[in-house]
Every structure is written in C-alpha cells, then in structure tokens.
C-alpha cells in the first residue's frame, strides 16, 4: 500500500477532493492528511457537531477551503472535483438521539446531494458508513456479507437506518448513473479532536478520569468494542479511495476490548484516582462489536499499526493539552451518561 495519493484507480489524477463534514472529528483528520499528500481540499460543514477549530491549522493554507453549508440543501462546488468523501452526519449516539430527524435527512437528502455532486463532476465517491449497519449483531466478528440485526423503530434506528439507506442509494447511483462509488463501514474510532462530551466511551472516560470524576460504565461493562486509532482509519479510507474497490469494506481494529477494560485502561493511562460507577445500559446497545477485516487486508494490504496503549496515550496527551476537562459538560450541566455508544 502506498502512502501517496496522487492518483485514483485507472491512473486518474487526484488533484482536488471535497470532504463533507470536514470540520468534524474524522473529516478534519482526512482534510489534514489529504493536504499533507498535496491534494487540494474543499471542506463543507454546517458545524452542527463539528467545529472550525478542528481545521484551524489549515486556515492559511491556500490549498484548503472551508465552506459553511448544509449538505441537505443544494450543494454547489465550482471547478473540478476528483473525489467526494461524504462524512457529514451526527455520529455519536448523544448527537443522533438529540437530532433524529436531521440524522435521517443528512443520511438521505445529504447523501443524495453528495452523490449528485460526484455525478456532476465525474468524481469518485466514498461514503462513511458504519458498523451500526450490523445493529446488535448475531454474527461475530462481522464480515461485510452479514446483513445485520437492526431495530428500525428503536431509538438508534434513526442513525442505523439512515446509513443503511445511504448505502442503498450509493449502490443505486453506481448501477443507474455509473458513479464510481465506495462504501466504508467504520468501526469505533478514537483519537485527538473528539469532543469531550460527545458521549462516546473513550472521550467520556478520558474526560472523567482527568477531572477525577467517577468513570461511568454502562451495564456491567461486559459489552465489547473494537477501537481503532484515527491515523489507521484515515490511512485505510484513503487506500480505499485510491483503489477502484466499491466496498462495502470494514475498516476498524479487530482487537476487541470490554467496555470495563477500556475504562480501567483509561484510568491507568491518566494516572487518575477515579472510581468506576456502573450506570444503566441504553436501549439496543450492541453487546459485541468486532470487524472482520479480511477484505481490507486482501484488497488494500491494510492493517492497523497503532495499538490500543499507544493510541490511548496519544489521545490522553491531546486531552491534557487541548481540553478544559473540568468545564466540559453536556448542555444540561450533567456528566454525560457514558452508556450510549
Ligand atoms: P463528527 O460529528 O465529529 O463529524 C460530523 C461532521 O458533519 C460535523 O463536523 C458536523 O458539523 C457535520 N455535519 C452534520 N450534518 C451536516 C450537514 N447537514 N451539512 C454539513 N455538515 C454536517 O463525527 P465523526 O466521528 O467525525 O463522524 C464522521 C462520519 O463518520 C459520520 O458520517 C459518521 O457516521 C461516520 N462514522 C464515524 C465513526 C467514528 O467512530 N467516529 C464510526 C462509524 C461511522
């Protein structure tokens, strides 16, 4: 696998990319890496769950442009575009449970617009799908051939079904309009620039541990997650973009940890005196999560390189430097319930 991304499959040049959700956690890392590889980037974001501060380091870069727009409205990007990376969507359970209709709209109408942009420009299109399309899985680990176990009328259905619809729409554009599409199913990813109160396990635990507050584990913490450091994910996504593969393709770290283990490791990595507090488990919270990454390894030669202790140490360092942990609360002023991930 090459680290340079000057061409797409078929020797098509990659000069200019559009990243929807470019001011979010993953989008900002993708913009940064694309610029490092010399690709011009236009980021589109409405700052609903993202923040221009995430790409502030690119503000003076003439090869980078951040446009404030909502992709559920008409999208217009002047000039050539070679690649559209569609990442706009609330992603944490706290966000999508608070924004259910927007989540469905950005997955449906927003995806339709992003696909329309790729069609208009003759660009390759890659959508950020999710391990949530597998729901609370009955097959473990989850290969791409598994169709999932999703409750469409449960609270998480707004996200899971939006992504499942987005995958179907992507395939329809591929088959009907010949758009060169790819679907990546992202498993839990962590690293710098996660919001300390976004409700996902790792940032919540790190913030709580650094603040010396109880670390809130949902249920008995026996449920598992497989967590991927963000640089590994970005490398896999750009390799998929560069390949001609359509996916769906799982990208995630297959190393599986119980949520209780994650909490204990965070307390140790932060040197915290925090205790663990067990809280209620959210509805439809998946019991297990682990990607089968055989396809990514075979097609892209991809495998994660940053192990959990190293990724955690880098994340803790970033939180210590960048985050006011004592001031980070959700809007209610309460510590966010770290269950819903
Ligand atoms: P994030 O919330 O940090 O980023 C999402 C970005 O999209 C934000 O900047 C937000 O402001 C923007 N956005 C939302 N609605 C928009 C709209 N209508 N128009 C323009 N911008 C809009 O989340 P993230 O973790 O960076 O996730 C990015 C993508 O990756 C999402 O599509 C998510 O479903 C997917 N994903 C992430 C993970 C993960 O572990 N982080 C796992 C699976 C899938």
From TrEMBL:
Cofactor(s) required for function per UniProt: NAD(+)
InterPro entries hit by this protein: Epimerase_deHydtase (IPR001509), NAD(P)-bd_dom_sf (IPR036291), UXS-like (IPR044516)
Annotated keywords: Decarboxylase, Lyase, NAD
Stored CDD domains: UGD_SDR_e
UniProt keyword Iron present: no
Every NAD-dependent epimerase/dehydratase domain range: 18-252
One Pfam short name: Epimerase
Record-annotated membrane-spanning stretches: none
UniProt name for this protein: Epimerase
């Amino acid at each position: 696998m090459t680290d340079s991304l000057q061409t797409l499959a078929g020797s098509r040049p990659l000069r200019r990319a559009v990243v929807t959700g470019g001011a979010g956690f993953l989008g900002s890392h993708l913009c940064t890496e694309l610029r490092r590889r010399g690709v011009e980037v236009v980021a589109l974001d409405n700052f609903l769950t993202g923040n221009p501060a995430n790409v502030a380091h690119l503000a003076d870069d003439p090869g980078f442009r951040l446009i404030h727009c909502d992709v559920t409205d008409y999208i217009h990007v002047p000039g050539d575009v070679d690649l559209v990376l569609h990442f706009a969507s609330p992603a944490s359970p706290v966000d999508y449970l608070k924004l259910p209709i927007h989540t469905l709209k950005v997955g449906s109408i927003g995806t339709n617009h992003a696909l329309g942009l790729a069609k208009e420009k003759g660009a390759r299109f890659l959508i950020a799908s999710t391990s949530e399309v597998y729901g609370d899985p009955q097959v473990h680990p989850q290969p791409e051939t598994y169709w999932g176990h999703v409750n469409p009328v449960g609270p998480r259905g707004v996200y899971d079904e939006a992504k499942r619809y987005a995958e179907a729409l992507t395939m329809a554009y591929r088959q009907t309009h010949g758009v060169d599409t790819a679907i990546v199913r992202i498993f839990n990813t962590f690293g710098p620039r996660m919001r300390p109160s976004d409700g996902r396990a790792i940032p919540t635990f790190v913030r709580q541990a650094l603040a010396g507050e109880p670390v809130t584990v949902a249920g008995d913490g026996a449920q598992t997650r497989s967590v991927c450091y963000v640089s590994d994910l970005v490398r896999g996504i750009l390799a998929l973009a560069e390949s001609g593969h359509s996916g769906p393709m799982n990208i995630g770290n297959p190393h599986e940890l119980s949520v209780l283990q994650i909490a204990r490791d965070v307390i140790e990595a932060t040197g915290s005196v925090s205790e663990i507090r067990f809280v209620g488990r959210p509805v439809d919270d998946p019991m297990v999560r682990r990607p089968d990454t055989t396809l990514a390894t075979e097609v892209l030669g991809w495998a994660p390189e940053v192990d959990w202790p190293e990724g955690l140490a880098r994340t803790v360092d970033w939180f210590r430097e960048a985050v006011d942990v004592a001031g980070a609360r959700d809007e209610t002023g309460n510590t966010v319930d770290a269950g819903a991930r």
